[in-house]
Amino acid sequence: MRKNIVAGNWKMNTTVPEGVKLAKEVNDAVAAAKDLKCEVVIGVPFTHLTAVKAVIDINKVGLAAENCAAKDKGAYTGEVSAAMVASTGANYVILGHSERREYFNETPEMLKEKVDLALANGLKVIFCCGESLELRENGTYKEYIKSEIEGSLFHLSADQFANIVIAYEPIWAIGTGKTATSDQAEEVHAVIRGLVADKYGKQVADDTTILYGGSCKPANAPELFSKPDIDGGLIGGASLKADSFMGIVTAF
Ligand SMILES: O=C[C@H](O)COP(=O)(O)O
């Protein structure tokens, strides 16, 4: 049976003290909440991981890095390896976000290396995929998403794939206030689950958590999460305030 997950992605926001304060607020709200129907994860900048880990209960609030290197160690100035992330106590890493693909030229091949290193170091992966407005409008978005998933994930064994969470994030909906409708999101989520079923079988597909991301807010989360193949969200802007993030966490 798959888990519902709501994960925050703080992106390049908050100083360390601000991030620690926000993490404490989320941790306290999760601890006080009754009958939560999802796992909660916060994705924070590398600089925050150790300090945030110290103020959360990792059994109640998962901790994600927002990236890791495609190399295991060595002379790569400024890079942060999967082993370094894991050594902070983080248990997740977000990989393949469209902002990294676009601004830092991350390719499916590079992401495949990152996925392998993350899994080898015991991290679970939140793997992002999603199409541009151009691909949405010319109707090739499903083929594009298929290529993103096949190119970076389908070399994995079924056992390895159990540690993958997929996040569908249409680029045209990220930070724009323009959410995909629940039907538009459900269509793609069902396609993704079908791809996983074709590759790994129905049981693995049924067990795979598929998140939606893109202007998800407390007001639209209940409708999105009511769809059968939408198992939660990857939340950007609305994860930067504990109140709005918890409004989504409690939307199931
Ligand atoms: O990773 C999160 C997504 O980019 C969504 O960001 P957003 O909620 O600010 O649209």
From TrEMBL:
Signal peptide: none annotated. GO terms for cellular component: cytosol. Its main location: cytoplasm. GO terms for molecular function: triose-phosphate isomerase activity. Pathway: Carbohydrate biosynthesis; gluconeogenesis; Carbohydrate degradation; glycolysis; D-glyceraldehyde 3-phosphate from glycerone phosphate: step 1/1. It is found in: Cytoplasm. It is an enzyme of class 5 (isomerase). Substrate binds at residues 9-11, 175, 215, 236-237. It comes from the Bacteria. Keywords: Cytoplasm, Gluconeogenesis, Glycolysis, Isomerase. CDD domains: TIM. The active site is at 97 (electrophile), 169 (proton acceptor). It catalyses: D-glyceraldehyde 3-phosphate = dihydroxyacetone phosphate. GO terms for biological process: gluconeogenesis; glyceraldehyde-3-phosphate biosynthetic process; glycerol catabolic process; glycolytic process. Belongs to the triosephosphate isomerase family. Homodimer. HAMAP family: TIM_B. NCBIfam families: tim. This is Triosephosphate isomerase. It comes from Sodaliphilus pleomorphus.
